[in-house]
Design brief:
The structure is a homodimer. With about 375 residues, chain A is an alpha/beta fold. In chain A, about 30% of the residues lie in helices and about 25% in strands.
Chain lengths: ~375, ~375
C-alpha cells in the first residue's frame, strides 16, 4: 500500500499528485438522490466494485442500502473486514480455493453468490457444507449481455430446483443484469433493452411460481438504467455502483427523467510538469492514473481545455481557440473516463470539502482480483 | 497489499486466478539476450517502470545493467528500499513534496533526474541544498515526441549551463527518448525516426562541446528501437524496459535484426467461469486484470482462440472455425496487451519454472503514482 498523498486539514492545492479526490458534498448528494428516487419501490444494494472501499459501503448502507454487491471474493472479504454484514457476489465463483474462502466468509456475514451451471451449484454446496455455513444462491439470468447466465425459462427453473434442493444453499432469487445497456447512449434504446430483460425476468418468475419454487428477490440494474427497472416493476432490488462518482463516459449518455441527475464527485488531481509549447501542457497523470478503456478523462471547469492523449505516466492537455493552457506547476482536476478501473489504481481516497482535506479513506479492496 | 495467489512449490494449474505469472526461463533468457546484444557498445540502464519490482531490478543489474530508470519518485524510493543503488528518474519532478523526497533519497543512493525548464533546475538545487545531497541532473531533449523536453541546440545548451552552475547538481548529460517510436509497426520507419533523434542529439552534443560544457552521458532508447540507437552511435546508455516481458502489442511490431528476438515471459493466468455457448468461454480476467489500452491480450498456445472483448472483471474467449473453447474451470494463459499498466494491477509475480511456482516477488512499486 502506498503512502497517502495528503493529510487531513491540508488544502486541496497542496495535495501531492496524482491523487484520487472525492468531493464529499457531491458524493453525499448522489447517495441521497439515489435513495430518494427509488424509496418505497425497490431495495438498493449498492455495487462496491466501483469504489472498493468499506468506508463508502457503510455510508451507502446508512443512506438506505440493504448491503452491497461485489464481483470478487477478495472484495467481499474486504467489505466484511470493514464491517459490512450483507454482501452479494454478483458473479460465478469457480475454483476450490475461492469457494473455500467464500464459504468461510459466510460464517461471519450474509453472503450471496450467483450461479449459471448445475456443476457449480454442487461445488458451492460442498464448500458450504464443509464450512458449516449457508450461502444465499441466486441464479444469474442471461438477459442479453451474452456473458454469464442461464437461459430464461425452463433452464433457469431447472437450475433453481438444483439450488433449492441443496441443504447448505438457500435459493435467494434471480440476478438479472444487463451491463452493456448501461452505456447505450440513447435513452430510448436503453429503455428498450431493459424492457426486453424485464420480459425474460417475468416469464421465468412465472414459471418458477408454477413450479412451486419461491423466488424471494429479483436483483439487478446499474446506474445507467435503474429507473427503467424500477418502472418496469420486474425487479425487487437494484445494484447501481457508478452513481456515487459518475464518470466522463456516463456523462456521454443521453440522460433524462425518470433517471435522476448525479454529480461528478470523483476526480484525479494532476500537476502540469512540462509545457512543450503554448497550446499544450503535459500533466503527471497518464493511463496508470486514469483508466482510458472508456476514453480520455474530462477536464473539470476549464472550458476549452481537453485531455487529448495519454501515455503511461503523462497526459496531454490541449487548448482550443481562445483558451489557455495552465502554467507549469499548476494543478487541474480530471474526471476519469471510467471510474471503476481508475479507482483500482489507487490506495487512498482524498476526501475534500470546502477546499480542504476532511478524510482519507483506504481503498482496501484495490487489486482484489481473485 | 493483497495476499499472493500461490505458494512456492505449487503447480501452475493450482494457482488461484487471475494471477500474474512470470516464466523464469523466458525471463532469464531475455535478460541475457539484451546484454549480449549490446555488450561493449553501450551501458544498459533497465527501465523499472515496466516491472516495479526490486527483485527484477537486482537481476537486471546482476546481468550487466548499471542501474535502473524510474518514472516516479515513489518508484525510485521502492527501488532504493529494495537495494538498488543507482536510479535515474527519466521524468521532470514538479512540486515541493516530491522534490524533498527525491533529494532525501539522494543521500542514500545515486539519484538522477531530468529537467526541461530552468525554473525546475532552481527548485532541484534548492531541494538538494536543503537535503545536503547532490543530484545527477540530465536535460531531457525533445526528439520528436512532443511530450517533455527542451528543444535541441541553443535552448538545450542554455539549460545545461544552468544545471552545471548549480552547486548541488551535477550535469550528468542528456536524456533523449522517443516513446512513440517504440510502437511504430514498420521496422524501417522506426529506424528513420530514431535517425532523426540521433541528428538532434549529435547537433546538441557538438554545441555543448563548443560551449565547454562536458556531457558525460547520452541516455535513452526503448525495447522497440534500442539497436538503432546503438548502431547510430549517438547514445552511451540504453533504457529498455519491456524486453524483460514482451507484450502482445510489441509482438505486432515488425521485428528484424539488428533487434534480437525476445520471448513472452509475462502472462495472466485466468479461469473459465462461464460457457454461454459452445463458441464462447468467459474468463475471470477482464480489464482490471489485463490492461486494454493497447488492445486485448493474446491467448497463449491455443490456436484459433481469441480474447475478443473485456469488461471490468470478465473476458470473452471466442473460438474460430475448427477450434474449441476451453471447458468450465479450465485455465488459460493470456499475454497482456501492454505489460506496464498490467503489472501495475498486481501485488505479486508468481514465478514459474518447469510448471511449478519457484518464487513470489512482491511488486513494491505497484501504485507508486507520485
Amino acid at each position: 500500500m502506498q503512502q497517502a498523498p495528503a493529510v487531513v486539514g491540508m488544502r486541496l492545492e497542496d495535495v501531492d499528485t496524482p491523487a484520487l479526490v472525492v468531493d464529499l458534498d457531491a458524493f453525499e448528494s448522489n447517495l441521497r438522490r439515489l435513495n430518494e428516487s427509488v424509496a418505497g419501490r425497490v431495495r438498493v444494494r449498492a455495487h462496491a466494485k466501483t469504489h472498493k472501499c468499506p468506508e463508502i459501503a457503510l455510508r451507502q448502507i446508512a443512506a438506505g442500502a440493504v448491503g452491497v454487491c461485489c464481483q470478487k471474493v477478495g472484495e467481499a472479504e474486504a467489505m466484511v473486514e470493514g464491517g459490512v454484514r450483507d454482501v452479494l457476489v454478483t458473479n460465478e465463483i469457480i475454483g476450490a480455493r475461492k469457494l473455500e474462502r467464500l464459504a468461510t466468509l459466510a460464517r461471519r456475514a450474509r453472503i450471496g453468490v450467483c450461479v449459471d451451471q448445475a456443476a457449480n451449484v454442487r461445488e458451492l454446496e460442498a464448500a458450504a457444507a464443509k464450512a458449516g455455513a449457508t450461502l444465499e444462491v441466486y441464479l444469474e439470468l442471461e438477459v442479453g449481455m451474452r456473458r454469464c447466465g442461464v437461459a430464461p425459462g425452463a433452464p433457469a427453473v431447472a437450475l433453481a430446483r438444483t439450488i433449492a434442493a441443496s441443504p447448505h444453499l438457500r435459493f435467494a432469487g434471480m440476478h438479472a443484469y444487463h451491463g452493456r445497456a448501461q452505456h447505450i447512449r440513447s435513452h430510448e434504446e436503453r429503455r428498450a433493452v431493459i424492457a426486453n430483460a424485464a420480459a425474460a425476468v417475468r416469464t421465468t418468475r412465472a414459471m418458477l411460481d408454477e413450479a412451486g419454487v419461491a423466488c424471494p428477490i429479483v436483483t439487478g440494474a446499474g446506474s445507467g438504467t435503474f429507473m427503467f427497472e424500477v418502472e418496469l416493476g420486474a425487479w425487487d432490488e437494484i445494484q447501481p455502483g457508478s452513481y456515487v462518482f459518475m464518470d466522463w463516459d456516463y456523462a456521454r449518455n443521453e440522460w433524462a427523467p425518470p433517471l435522476p441527475r448525479f454529480d461528478h464527485s470523483l476526480f484525479v488531481l494532476a500537476t502540469v510538469q512540462s509545457r512543450p509549447d503554448d497550446r499544450i501542457a503535459i500533466v503527471d497523470a497518464g493511463l496508470k492514473a486514469s483508466s482510458v478503456d472508456s476514453g480520455m478523462p474530462g477536464v473539470w471547469e476549464r472550458p476549452g481545455l481537453a485531455y487529448t492523449h495519454a501515455s503511461d505516466e503523462h497526459g496531454w492537455l490541449e487548448a482550443g481557440p481562445g483558451s489557455k493552457v495552465p502554467a507549469l506547476g499548476e494543478k487541474v482536476l480530471l474526471v476519469p473516463g471510467h471510474c471503476d478501473p481508475t479507482v483500482n489504481l489507487y490506495d487512498w481516497y482524498v476526501c475534500v470539502r470546502g477546499g480542504a482535506v476532511e478524510a482519507l479513506w483506504p481503498i482496501t479492496a484495490r487489486g482484489a482480483l481473485a
